[in-house]
Amino acid sequence: MKKYYLLTPGPTPIPPNVALKEALPILHHRTSEFAQIYKDVSEGLKYAFQTANEVYTIAGSGSAAMETAVVNLLSPGDEIIVASCGNFGDRWAKIAQSYGVKVISVSVEWGKIVIPAQIEEALKANPNVKAVYTTFTETSTGVVNDIKTIGEIVSKTNAVLVVDTVSGLVGQEYRADAWKVDVTVSGSQKGFMLAPGLSFITLSDKAWKLVETSKIPKFYFDIKKYKKSYATNETPFTPPVTLMVSLLEAIKMIKEEGLENMWNEYKLLAKASRAGMKALGLELFGEVPCEVVTSAKVPEAIGGKIVKTLREKYGVSIAGGQGDLKGKIIRFAHMGYIGKADILVGFSCLEMVLEELGVKIEKGKSVAAVQEVLMGK
Ligand SMILES: *Cc1c(COP(=O)(O)O)cnc(C)c1O
């Protein structure tokens, strides 16, 4: 028998009280009972997104909300700017191109953060651009982009700003309205401490104007349907009622804890994780590390083996690199229902695995470094 620890940047572990809600009998979705749940969930989501606008829930993984943010704002032949610094930023370009949208790329090398001044220049050079698509916390590399500054820039133009916060929301300070973000998308399986399967999207008035002109064909992801149903606390299609009931429980926890307290906790876990990596002699990866996942470079020959051995031998799941970073980095998550003790377990087992794979380390050193930070020293 093996006990498993999930320290991956999605899905994340879910709290027992949230998991228990998933065992309750199914309720029908065209009832006043469900309407109340949907209403409370939607209010809670507004808090998590820090927006006064409506937040819609769509069945699907985070990419469903990303696709929704493309097909509802644009028409074939439209020009957009994609500011990518990793795998998820690149996904914006792939979705848009598959609908015949012209992508102007202001992407940077993986590990760097996107450069707001480049977005500003591209907007000046391409006045017809309808929207700028970018990523808050780029999970594939572990960096965080300066959305506030980008929001200032884009808000002065006719273009709308669309931000993917699938991994960052709840885990790190994010304010959709104050930062002038027009469209924010997220998902259930990371900061929200829930099973995968729900995606969320919120739109500003400026973005709704674009919705009116959009000609990309759509049906299930037609955001107007979601808006219309929202008025009566319903969803246009059968919602995953089980996930909605468990989301309400997760939102209750987030409200009780308070977003700012949660942000501070993950900030501490991020600091501890960075100290742990450094103590192992592993160089941190990423220009501006985010607070929901920590990436570090590992010797290429054993990169894949670290992740595999940790899971197979000790039941600890972490993530490796994606794309060109495969085998070159490891990623430790501290988002969702991951706490202080989980980080200690992760580093303690990582030390054993590194030694087993022939890396010279001093056992206990990273654990001590993590402890120092967690104890506030
Ligand atoms: C996880 C993630 C997604 C969505 O991936 P899905 O597999 O569709 O849920 C999108 N963007 C970022 C930054 C992510 O971390």
A few lines on this structure:
The chain has 377 residues and is α/β, with parallel strands linked by helices.
Which tags fit this structure?
377 residues, alpha/beta, Aspartate Aminotransferase, domain 1, Aspartate Aminotransferase, domain 2, 7-stranded mixed beta sheet, 13 helices, 14 strands
Outline the secondary-structure elements:
Elements: E1 5-6, H1 16-21, H2 32-49, E2 55-59, H3 62-71, E3 79-83, H4 87-98, E4 102-105, H5 116-125, E5 131-135, E6 137-138, E7 143-144, H6 147-155, E8 160-164, E9 183-187, E10 198-203, H7 205-213, H8 223-230, H9 241-257, H10 259-279, E11 293-297, H11 303-314, E12 316-317, E13 319-320, E14 329-333, H12 340-356, H13 365-374
The structure holds pyridoxal-5'-phosphate (PLP).
